[in-house]
Amino acid sequence: MKAVWITAALALLASPGAGRDLMPIPPDAVAVMNAAHRLFADLPSPQVVARMTDVCGADRGVNDQVAFCASNNVIYYRADSFYQDHEAYELAHVLGHAIQVRHGVADVALREIRRRRDEEDKLRGWVTRQVECIAGYLFLQANLPKTDLHHLYDAEPMTGSHWGRDPLSVGPKVSIGLDARAEWFAIGQEGDLNACAVGEFGADLLLKALR
């Protein structure tokens, strides 16, 4: 079973033999990863790195805690990234991007962005809102308590590059404000994936992919 494999992989990465700086990965992060793989096919596997700049063409402008590399379908995370209270959310967030990429939403969005460059900020804002909604949905499916992003952050998170193809250094950088992120994360936690439709980007591809 995929979920069992993910649990084992995460445990292996956090084992003493994996490096002296690693500690057991918190159960909330494992629960999020398992929920995502249970609900959607073809999602990335996790891989620990000492420095994000070692992988997928990342530079210092890329999120140095966690990032999704679409070129090889891997979520990279720094060895100490899971020491933070917000680790499960940030994992859910990059999994939201992975779900969009692996199940066609990102292709639709990219086509529209290339066609309508003057509306790129608006279109990327819709993509980001949907990602937050998916992340909230994963939280619910992982049986985690409802979480308000205002309680985790004083400022807007995940605004630097943290997903895309190699090189990650040129990945999208999007700001929609902490309030908007918290709003859509809360919508996802209500448990209706159909509610993750944002602007012109519906939820039909997400629902089709849902197992």
Task: Spell out the key features of this protein.
single chain; 211 residues; alpha/beta; four-stranded mixed sheet; 4 strands; globular
Provide an overview of this structure:
- Residues 1-20 form the signal peptide.
- Keywords: Signal.
- It is a single chain.
- Strand 2 (66-69) and strand 3 (74-78) form a beta hairpin.
- The protein has 211 residues and is an alpha/beta fold.
- Residues 11-23 have low confidence and may be disordered.
- The two termini are 14 Å apart.
- The protein is built from eight helices and four strands.
- It has two domains: 2-83, no CATH class; 87-93 and 103-158 and 172-209, no CATH class.
- It has helices at residues 2-13, 27-39, 87-102, 105-115, 120-141, 149-152, 178-188, 204-209, and strands at 45-49, 66-69, 74-78, 163-164.
- Helix 1 (2-13) packs antiparallel against helix 2 and helix 4 runs antiparallel to helix 5.
- It has a four-stranded mixed β-sheet with strand order 1-3-2-4.
- Helices cover 45% and strands 8% of the residues.
Summarize the structure.
Keywords: Signal. The protein has 211 residues and is α/β, with parallel strands linked by helices.
